[in-house]
Structure formats: structure tokens, C-alpha cells
């Protein structure tokens, strides 16, 4: 008889524990607003650290905390140009010498071609 009562009850996939004698945790509700104008509320635990930005649930943009401080901008390294990389390998004086040598070679080609 005991085996028949468990048949079809999805044992293991459904919790039979009740919420009796348990107190829900205290919550705080925080408002965010995205650049598109969507405003929404997100619940957090009362003792949780609230982030400055949250992904908008309507369009996925980065929404900012209403009444909060501006998030700190991320440090962005400026892109390295070819000139920057060249200056890491050679000094300006070396580059001037190489330029003078190449100009001489080009001038020599012109005189021979004429």
C-alpha cells in the first residue's frame, strides 16, 4: 500500500516542504532607469550591496540607479598607433638616419633611370 501512494507523485522533482514557521527575509526595492526611458524596480535583500547599474529588462541597455551616484568610468587604454610602436623600438635620431639613407637610395635610382 505504501508503494502505491508514491506512484505518480514525481518524487524528487517537487519539494514537499512547507513555508510554515519561516519568516521571509527583509527586502529593499530599488528603482533603475535606462537611457530609453524605461523605469523598473528590482528587489534586493535588505543587507545586499546595491549595484549602480542593472540590465534593463525591456531592451537590455545598462540602466542607472535612480538617485544614485554616477558609476565610475572604466579605464580605457588609448589605442597604440604604428608611430607609437615604432618609437618603442627606435629613437627619433635613428629614424632620421634611416630616412636620410632611404632618400639617398631613391635619389640614386632617379639619376640612373634618367
Automatic annotation (TrEMBL):
InterPro entries: RbpA_sf, RNApol-bd_RbpA. It comes from the Bacteria. The keyword Transcription regulation applies. Keywords: Transcription, Transcription regulation. One of its GO terms (molecular function) is bacterial-type RNA polymerase core enzyme binding. Gene3D superfamilies: RNA polymerase-binding protein A (2.20.28.270). One of its GO terms (biological process) is positive regulation of DNA-templated transcription. Coiled coil: none annotated. It holds the Pfam family RbpA. The keyword DNA-binding does not apply. Binds to RNA polymerase (RNAP), stimulating transcription from principal, but not alternative sigma factor promoters. Forms a complex with the RNAP catalytic core and with free principal sigma factors. Belongs to the RNA polymerase-binding protein RbpA family. This is RNA polymerase-binding protein RbpA. The lineage of its organism: Bacteria, Bacillati, Actinomycetota, Actinomycetes, Geodermatophilales.
